[in-house]
Amino acid sequence: MSDFTSTITEKTVFGNLRSHFGTFTSSGVTGGPIDTGLDKILFWYPVTYKDGGANGTTSAGVVSGVVISGGTSNTFPVSGTNIEIICPVDISGSWFAHGR
């Protein structure tokens, strides 16, 4: 089954800014939407695990090829709560978003 999922796992506030943390899993697809829960995203960072973290393989680190689609990978702030990412097939990981 092909599927992309993302979940917010933690939220915190630093002054007038919010930081949200979450996870994502790409099973048989090359990306999908990540709902950060923020109205304006000032910064977004993925930490992925090769091979989906299966069989004890948790090679942490930024896997090349995880980018924000639509050419916004280096253009912040991003208005709106969603970021659409493009990534290798069958990986999972965590993400961090900072904004308002």
Radius of gyration in whole Å, from Cα? 13 Å
pLDDT under 50 segments (min length 5)?
52-57
Count of individual domains? 1
Can you tell me the CATH topology? Immunoglobulin-like
End-to-end distance = 35 Å
Residues in helix, %: under 10%
Strand content: over 45%
Q: Biggest sheet, open or closed, and with what strands and sense?
A: 6 strands, antiparallel
CATH 2nd-level architecture: Sandwich
| Nearest-integer average pLDDT | 80
Give me the count of strands.
9
Q: Describe the global form.
A: elongated
Q: Which class best fits the helix and strand makeup? A: mainly beta
Our count of helices gives: 0
SSE arrangement, N to C: EEEEEEEEE
Q: What's the level 1 CATH class?
A: Mainly Beta
